Amino acid sequence: MDIAELQATLRKTYYRRDARRGRDATFRWMTEEVGELARALRNGDQEELAHEFGDVLAWLTSLANLRGVSLDAAATRYADGCPRCGASPCRCEFR
Amino acid sequence: MDIAELQATLRKTYYRRDARRGRDATFRWMTEEVGELARALRNGDQEELAHEFGDVLAWLTSLANLRGVSLDAAATRYADGCPRCGASPCRCEFR
Asked: Hey, which residues 31-90 in chain B have their CB within 8 Å of chain A?
């Protein structure tokens, strides 16, 4: 699935609700999902893990919709390698 | 950009480093980026905001690579509308 396609679908599905709830509450929801991802990383099976990764991605995208940010455009910084050193594999000092 | 293409590129760019650092430290990095996103949501301009959305997406994808999760497959739950009520726009009780 294309990132832009996902973002457009999520806009159609959730934008009205997200706008009604507002930016901060939507950010809070995304953070709640990050917590659920943390729990699945700790003790979930692969299916639960995929579920939570999907949820975090969806909420991140909903938040991007609320703020008028194209996730596809944002992702292009990573399209050709590391944005910091320009290489792939990355050659930055390890951190 | 396709989600799978982004994930493959990030795997080539960062997997070795991410595996060396480990799952928990990579999760910690992702959370640090969520914090930077929060700051950009509070007082960043549109360019800074896009930068941070991109970083969170990249770290989420790196973590998915470490755990063998396909973000593209995870996203398909949202491909046809709300996974809970099946509709687009969503018809769930507002929350």
From this structure: 31, 34, 38, 41, 46, 49-51, 53-54, 56-58, 60, 63-64, 67-82, 87-90
CB contact under 8 A, B89 and A54: no
A16 touching B (Cβ < 8 Å): yes
Q: How confident is the model over B6-64, as pLDDT tens digits?
A: 999 999 999 999 999 999 999 999 999 999 999 999 999 999 999 999 999 999 999 99
Which residue in B57, B77, B94 is closest to A71 by CB distance? B57
Kindly report the three-state secondary structure assignment for every residue of chain A. Answer: CEHHHHHHHHHHHHHHHHHHHCHHHHHHHHHHHHHHHHHHHHHCCHHHHHHHHHHHHHHHHHHHHHCCCCHHHHHHHHCCCCCCCCCCCCCCCCC
Min Cα distance B59 → chain A (Å) is 11
- The confidence score (pLDDT) of residue B20 equals 97
Does pTM surpass 0.95? Answer: yes
A57 vs B60, B94, B95: nearest CB:
B60
The predicted-structure confidence for A40-77, as pLDDT tens digits, reads as follows 999 999 999 999 999 999 999 999 999 999 999 999 99
CA-CA distance, A60 to A66, in Å (whole number)? 10
